[in-house]
């Protein structure tokens, strides 16, 4: 009997057929998610896994759960130092730490744990692999403008507070390779060569682990740096 004839048979309970089909799909999906934990919304985050469908949201959720964030750093083998809360009002930083082995220069900034977790994943899963693949050398240093700055967006006197006000953001200006070459966001973004290709690759990689990613494509204020933050959003911003 053909499938169409079988389904038209009065003896066939279509609801049961569809239920069995749905069960089959569910079981297949469950097995697939077990093999791809980076896409599974119910599996705890591990920064050693590649970024997946749910990674950015899991990282953003850590913004309001610093204890869980520190547990994830420890479970993922990421070294860090925690600091006591400091500051007042909109610029109070209850959640601040520094990564101990991050190749950041000129110094290791104090950021929110969620930013630190995002940076650690971005470096391991995007920056270092892209540097070796596109430029043929590993990363020696990642240059930054800092994390904490008690100010409103665009340094104005009114409007929303910047994510920098609580150390929940970091601005990246360039990269120095192990072979001595330097890649500058300002000078190389529009270069059209391998340096520009690398910068776009790491910008796109950041979009998978940070809530907000702003590059020179966003506006002139970001012509010389990538702004990366973990503002909790329903949808990420990647420009």
What's this model, at a glance?
The chain is of the alpha+beta class. The protein folds into two domains: 1-35; 46-238, no CATH class. The chain is built from seven helices and nine strands.
Describe the structure.
There is one protein chain. By secondary structure, this protein is an alpha+beta fold. The protein has helices spanning 3-8, 14-35, 55-61, 66-75, 113-135, 185-188, 194-206, and strands at residues 80-82, 97-99, 104-105, 139-146, 169-177, 182-184, 212-214, 226-229, 237-238. It folds into two domains: 1-35; 46-238, no CATH class.
Shape: globular
- What's the total count of β strands? 9
Would you tell me the structural class of the helices and strands?
alpha+beta
Strand portion, in percent? 15-25%
Helix-strand pattern, N to C? HHHHEEEHEEEHHEEE
Helix proportion of residues, in percent?
25-40%
If you compute it from the alpha carbons, what radius of gyration comes out, rounded to the nearest whole angstrom?
Answer: 22 Å
Question: Span between N and C termini?
Answer: 56 Å
- Mean pLDDT over all positions: 88
Describe the largest sheet.
7 strands, mixed
What is the number of helices?
7
* Low-confidence runs: none
User: How many domains make up the coordinates?
Assistant: 2
Organism: Altericroceibacterium indicum
Protein name: Extensin
Keywords: Membrane, Transmembrane, Transmembrane helix
InterPro entries: Extensin-like_C
How is this fold's topology laid out?
Elements: H1 3-8, H2 14-35, H3 55-61, H4 66-75, E1 80-82, E2 97-99, E3 104-105, H5 113-135, E4 139-146, E5 169-177, E6 182-184, H6 185-188, H7 194-206, E7 212-214, E8 226-229, E9 237-238
Parallel strand pairs: 3-4, 7-9
Antiparallel strand pairs: 1-2, 4-5, 5-6, 5-8, 7-8
Helix pairs in contact: 3-5, 5-7
